[in-house]
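Database export, one record per block. Field names are fixed; values are copied verbatim from the stored entry.
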Amino acid sequence: MCFKDRSKPYLRIPPWLRVKIPCNKTYSATRELVKDLSLNTVCQSAKCPNMFECFSEHTATFLIMGNTCTRNCAFCNIESGEILPLDLTEPTRVAEAAKRLKLKHVVITSVTRDDLADGGAGAFASTISAVRKALPESTIEVLIPDFQGDEASLISVIEAGPDIINHNVETPPMHYSDIRPQADYEQSLELIKRVKSAGAIAKSGVMVGLGENDEEVQGVIDDLAIIGCDIVTIGQYMRPSLKHPEVLRYVHPDVFEEYARYGKGKGVKHMYSAPLVRSSYNAALFAGLKK
């Protein structure tokens, strides 16, 4: 299905979102390493606009548990489809890739696996353990799904000891039915609250440009501040293909700065808000945080 609405004027990509595409040996080496180890990255699967920059800096965000998802969020480029069994060798290969890349901060995310009894929490725990063994001095960040609200699954990830636990709320609650229909806003907030209650560093993210207004964005920031979320990222939604919803507004960089000021004023310790910000983009900036 194409989401093109011909009754609305076409929004041109503004200059602050036009990304230069570097082509260098480091970029190619990172891409080949990921390919050689038969790994997925969210950089490639989600068509992240920062992929060329990150690969050129010898970094990547690992996508575990396959490349197909049991959900079908409107904004996401990762496809739903046939779900394959877990590859029990994947944690070791992720650890090997992180070691070869000499990563000081390792970011691991996944597709959503509602087909698994634990939602894939065990795979996260195994991957965290393998990376910790290979790179004991490095910090680890995980971007996790909601595990359908299962507290035991979340606890198993927390007990594996990642340095930062990220779970994105993505968009204000009134837009969930269109953008994130298989998720629940309050359930996501509860997950983040549990992360904080366990003494871990909590992180979450929001996209703008999907129909929300600034007051709604501020409302999400309010909710995250109330539950003590340590890090909040806000970035511009960019349409991955014609099958995805159109961008309904391009938010000016000045407004992103206003979001950051608003969040800090509400008590959020670290606001990272700019058009090209993504959950894992420059994640190492927060790697030195203490629990």
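Remark 1: The chain has one domain: 21-283.
Remark 2: Strands lie at 40-41, 61-64, 105-110, 139-143, 164-166, 201-208, 231-236, 270-273.
End of record.
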